[in-house]
Amino acid sequence: MSATHLTLLAADIGGTSSRFAVFSEHVGRLRLEQSVHIPTRQAQSFADLLDLLRQSHLGRLLPGCRAATLAVAGAVQRGVFAKPPNISWEIDLRRIDISALPRQVTLINDFAAQAYACRTDAVNNALVINRGVAEPEAMVAVVGAGTGLGHALLLPLREAFLVLPSEAGHAAFPFVGEAERDYERFLLAQTGLEYIHGDVALSGLGLALLHQYHFGEAPDPAQAAAALTPDSPVRTWFARFYGRACRQFVLATLAMGGLFVSGGVAAKNPCLVQDAAFMAEFVNSPGYGHLLRSLPVALNNNEDSGLWGAALCALLHLEQERAL
């Protein structure tokens, strides 16, 4: 890596895995140099996670990084604090020693990072689900199932763009018809929740619960994914739920710039959005089915996408600081 290249630290801290990477930037282009994945549950606190990062092979590269963006699976308050719902500890940049990190550190929502990633090489090999034609200068929706169900928007501006995070995955999930309501009752009994939200219905956990409902077995998410077959009701139901969640978000925000599906569940199992049930449900709107059918839909199957988005965010913040 040439010493003339600017280096940036990117992190994507999720409920299951925390990914870190060092990127180089030259003439506006990002390149992922080295990365490390740390199981999130291996850390007892955010400070502990940073210690594990320092001890990894990336540790020797940290002093050379000019800026860092840490993306976390949860709502970020004031740019310095997050209490992620699927992680047992909180992140507060004001109360821990971050001296090993670059002077400029930005904390953002993980799906804000996924939205930033839509402006990077991370989406170069995205799978086309529906070709469609985007409305110029309209918002782009990003929705993705992983440990939870993430949402974000990318709003193009003149010579720039704005990223808007969302916690729509914590809104109540809409079940339709008696068969689905029977499943809803099953979920309520299994989880003890008062209502089922998107993080439960559409996530790795949701895939495992759907398998348990249909087959009576209680696998972990990876086992449930491995059992997916073209004629499996688990595949059809999950695809339908996924299409519904995407439709709800696109209509709620009028994201006529199109949709990127992201997140580890579909990246590892693209059949869940390639199944016909996904698009059938996505366009199932009495008033706006014609608009939904016209939108481009793509699967961002790059599992390092959040790192690319975080790196771009770090670069943009550094450029803003230089301009002041």
Q: Describe it for me?
A:
The protein has twelve helices and 14 strands. With about 325 residues, it is an alpha/beta fold. The protein folds into two domains: about 100 residues, 2-Layer Sandwich (Nucleotidyltransferase, domain 5), CATH 3.30.420; about 170 residues, Hexokinase, domain 1. A six-stranded mixed β-sheet has the order 9-14-13-10-11-12, with helices on both faces. A hairpin with a 3-residue loop joins strand 5 and strand 6. It starts with 5 loop residues before the first strand and ends with a helix.
Notable characteristics:
6-stranded mixed sheet, 36% helix, single chain, 14 strands, 324 residues, Hexokinase, domain 1, 5-stranded mixed sheet, 12 helices, alpha/beta, Nucleotidyltransferase, domain 5
Topology:
Elements: E1 6-13, E2 17-26, E3 29-39, H1 46-55, E4 67-72, E5 76-77, E6 81-82, E7 91-92, E8 104-109, H2 110-117, E9 127-130, E10 140-145, E11 149-157, E12 160-166, H3 177-191, H4 198-201, H5 204-215, H6 221-226, H7 233-253, E13 259-262, H8 264-268, H9 271-274, H10 276-282, H11 289-293, E14 297-299, H12 305-323
Parallel strand pairs: 1-4, 4-8, 10-13, 13-14
Antiparallel strand pairs: 1-2, 2-3, 5-6, 6-7, 9-14, 10-11, 11-12
Helix pairs in contact: 2-12, 5-7, 7-10
